[in-house]
Write a structure and sequence with these properties.
Hypothetical protein yfbM fold, two-stranded antiparallel sheet, alpha+beta
């Protein structure tokens, strides 16, 4: 498995305009442009592969190729890229950013254009003050010992999953604040709201 195939859970802070279509309201990014991107699944080859290895028992698993399901064999896929500034952070950091702003943490939301000056003042106040309450040391939680039955029905003793929390450094929090101020400046200049999802 390649690193770019791992499922990532994150939140992106960006800008958007609230528009009404067919009686419903939608946020759209007026700076988003359609682009063709190199397929990340097949690395632009148009083919996915399976096998091509020998297992622990010495059994040979021949390599087979088939059309990539993501790009349908084209090596590229259609995507939308924004020219507006964005900040993508892990879910836990997104929740902390929202707490910094004085908001109830949620996986999606918006700050209206008219409210941006107050939120910018809040961020500047935090940046020029003590940000230590937003900094978090890295930690590692080792799963507890437990008994379980494996897939073959055999009783086993082992640990649960180990979770690594990378924490939030002071420099990281300052970078988040600077990025958010940049996004809010851009939103003010272009009469947009700040959104996250």
């Amino acid at each position: 498995m390649r690193l770019d195939e791992i499922l990532t859970e994150s939140v992106t802070f960006s800008v958007a305009r609230l528009e009404t279509k067919d009686g419903k309201q939608y946020y759209t990014d007026p700076f988003s442009k359609e682009t063709m991107e190199k397929c990340w699944v097949c690395n632009g080859t148009g083919k996915e592969t399976h096998g091509g290895y020998k297992d622990d028992d010495g059994k040979d698993h021949p390599k087979s190729e088939y059309e990539c399901g993501m790009c349908h064999g084209n090596g590229e896929y259609k995507d939308f890229k924004s020219e507006a500034p964005e900040l993508n952070v892990a879910n836990g950091n997104a929740m902390e950013i929202q707490r910094m702003l004085g908001l109830d943490a949620d996986y999606s939301g918006a700050i209206k254009h008219a409210d941006l000056p107050a939120f910018k003042r809040q961020l500047i106040k935090i940046k020029n003050g003590d940000i230590s309450s937003h900094v978090q040391d890295p930690k590692k939680e080792v799963g507890k010992m437990r008994t379980y039955t494996d897939d073959t029905g055999q009783s086993r003793i082992g640990r649960g999953a180990t979770v690594h929390d990378m924490g939030r450094s002071r420099a990281q929090v300052e970078r988040y604040i600077d990025s958010l101020l940049s996004i809010m400046d851009f939103a003010q200049k272009n009469n947009l709201d700040v959104t996250w999802a």
